[in-house]
Amino acid sequence: MIALEKIREAADEISDVIHRTPVLTSSRLSEQTGNEVYLKGEHLQKTGSFKIRGASNKVLKAVREGASHVVAASSGNHGQAVAYIAGQAGVQATIVVPVDASPAKVAAIEAYGGQVVRCGLTSAERIPEALRIAEETGGVFVPPYDDPDIIAGQGTAGMEILEQVADCEAVIVPVGGGGLTAGILCAIKQMRPEILVIGAEPETADDTKQSLEAGERIAIGPTQTIADGLRTSIPGELTFPILRSHLDRLVTVSEGEIKEACKLLFQYTKQVVEPSGAVSAAALLSGRTGIRGKRVVAVLSGGNVSADAFAEMLRT
Ligand SMILES: *Cc1c(COP(=O)(O)O)cnc(C)c1O
To answer: Mind listing the UniProt keywords for this protein, alphabetically (predicted)?
Structure first.
């Protein structure tokens, strides 16, 4: 576990640069799932996802300690978050992306002032390149989830949930590498251990489910899911032991259930949530969380989806 003190320090460190995101409600979602449903709106966070929490905790600390350059390997929300916070802190960011990264994602990183380097197709190729660039430039590598400062930063979302939803009984969190879930577990299980924390993962990228069943980290092959933020192939070294010891349950959802959740969130709440961010709501809607008659928070972890991709989801 990451100490509560570290999460409180992270909250202080990042409070000026992030939003305290709103908690939304939907009576239709509540009725449909038989619970009192609250939605933690991290799709309305700065840069469009919770990733800015961990990234700013790590980057602002590094800058205070003298860093003038940060490096990350991600074409997605983590890359955007690192580019944004580096710009705010006045330091340079280099973001290593796959050669097939979408032009929209590259443009978002560049719009925040990040320098884009293209390398390979897999994270196994990108991470060594990012580490090499960090080494060569004296920069600091910012991992997406497997780092105590990143986990502490993501944990601030858990603290906010406890402050915003009095008497909350269960929290559902999308799981990729496990940084968000580990952070929320560290906050909630040290402050209110009776609250259930449930992970949600795509069926087609169920590395965490397989790992929890095996009791050790299991690597799965390349994954394909519409929830592109959850395409990790192995849980983190630091995050997995936290999930294994404290996560109450893990639910997997199908591709169809993820799309349907995006659609219902749009219809019921008028919110644009990206597929990864809607996996928590999909789990709740599936009826497989085992949660009924409870005050439950689904974390909507991000909202970065292109208009075309979103329109396509609404049509199908
Ligand atoms: C990164 C990401 C996740 C998964 O977070 P992890 O810390 O890797 O488990 C979930 N949702 C969105 C929108 C993300 O960008």
So the answer is: Magnesium, Pyridoxal phosphate
Q: Domain 51-141 maps to which CATH number in 3.90.650.10, 3.40.190.170, 3.40.50.720, 3.40.50.1100? A: 3.40.50.1100
Q: Hey, which residues does 299 pair with through a beta bridge?
A: 40
Closest of 271, 297, 6 to residue 153, by C-alpha: 6
Contact in structure between 227 and 194 (CB atoms under 8 Å): no
Look up residue 178 and give its two tokens. Answer: 């496990």
- Ligand 1 contact, 181 CB (< 6 A): yes
Q: Which residue among 53, 173, 175, 180 is best mutated to probe the pocket of ligand 1, counting the most ligand atoms within 8 A of its Cβ?
A: 180
CATH topology of domain 4-50+147-315: Rossmann fold (3.40.50)
The pLDDT tens digits along the chain (316 residues) read 999 999 999 999 999 999 999 999 999 999 999 999 999 999 999 999 999 999 999 999 999 999 999 999 997 999 999 999 999 999 999 999 999 888 888 999 999 999 999 998 888 899 999 999 999 999 999 999 999 999 999 999 999 999 999 999 999 999 999 999 999 999 999 999 999 999 999 999 999 999 999 999 999 988 899 999 999 889 999 999 999 999 999 999 999 999 999 999 999 999 999 999 999 999 999 999 999 999 999 999 999 999 999 999 999 8
Domain ranges of the chain: 4-50+147-315, 51-141
Atom of ligand 1 nearest to the CA of 43: 13
CA 290–ligand 1 middle distance (angstroms): 23
CB-neighbour burial class of residue 263 (10 A; exposed 0-12, middle 13-18, buried 19+): middle
